[in-house]
Amino acid sequence: MTQNYFLSLRTLFSNRLPTQAAVALLCIAMTTITVQAANLDPSSYFFQESFGNFQDELATAKAEGKKGVMLFFEQNDCPFCARMKRTILNQPEVQQYYRDNFRIFAVNIEGDVDITDFQGKTISEKDFSFKTHRVRATPVIRFFDLQGKKVASYTGATGSKKEFLLLGKFVAEGHYKHSSFTKYKREQRKVTTP
Q1: CA dist 184 → 28, 90, 95, 176 (Å)
Q2: Which DSSP helix (H) or strand (E) runs through 167?
Q3: Angle at Cα 91 formed by Cα 85 and Cα 92, nearest 5°?
Q4: Which helix or strand (DSSP H or E) is residue 11 part of?
Q5: Which of 50, 108, 139, 155 is most buried by its number of CB atoms within 10 A?
Q6: Are 60 and 103 in contact (CB under 8 A)?
């Protein structure tokens, strides 16, 4: 797609298109390229690859100096999961913050793939979701400390990028130890509202 823009622009310049028009077209082409680059695919830039061994992922998180592990419980054809991926998880600022602080993995609540849970037990994604974590609706965003203990959970899609970043900060900075996320959000609004 990018090559087509530049080939077209070269053709326009070689045909002596007036300079102002050529510059305007170049600006439009660069804006389109920038907008496309600003949103990065969550499957590559947000979620991390895993062999399905969450015990190993905890060890990796410790070795990398992370705060813990975040699991994004999802299912196929979940419109709320798709919306989060399309509008929030594809944002570079979100991807950077979460990858700096957590190991991040998607879990398919309908999946038959075997995983190793935080305690070393082999279990299907489906049983891990339903039986172990009682996930019924999606998305569910769940955070675990470096010992594999659940420390925070959020059910449903967050309303905005700002709220999702606040959720990450709530966990990464340890606010979950003495406050609920709802109370923390309210306090943050008071701090930022003049």
Answers
A1: 42, 25, 22, 9
A2: helix 161-172
A3: 135
A4: helix 2-14
A5: 139
A6: yes
pTM given for the model = 0.78
Tokens of 172: 């990464």
Judge contact between 107 and 133, C-beta under 8 A. Answer: no
Phi, psi at 88, each rounded to 5°? -125, -55
Structure tokens at 122: 């082999």
Count of beta carbons in the 10 Å neighbourhood of residue 170: 22
pLDDT recorded at residue 142: 98
Taking alpha carbons only, the member of 128, 109, 106 closest to residue 117 is 128
The overall longest dimension of the chain from CA atoms, in Å, is 69
Name the residue type at position 109: I
pLDDT of 6 higher than 70: no
**178: DSSP letter:** T
Distances (CA, A) of 2 to 27, 28, 35, 39, 62: 13, 12, 12, 16, 41
Average the pLDDT over 40-62 and give the result. Answer: 91
pLDDT at 119 over 50: yes
Which of 154, 135, 145 shows the shortest CA–CA distance to 84?
Answer: 154
> How far, in Å, CA of 140 to CA of 74, rounded?
7
Contact by Cβ (8 Å): 151, 68: yes
Q: How many CB atoms lie within 10 A of CB 162?
A: 14
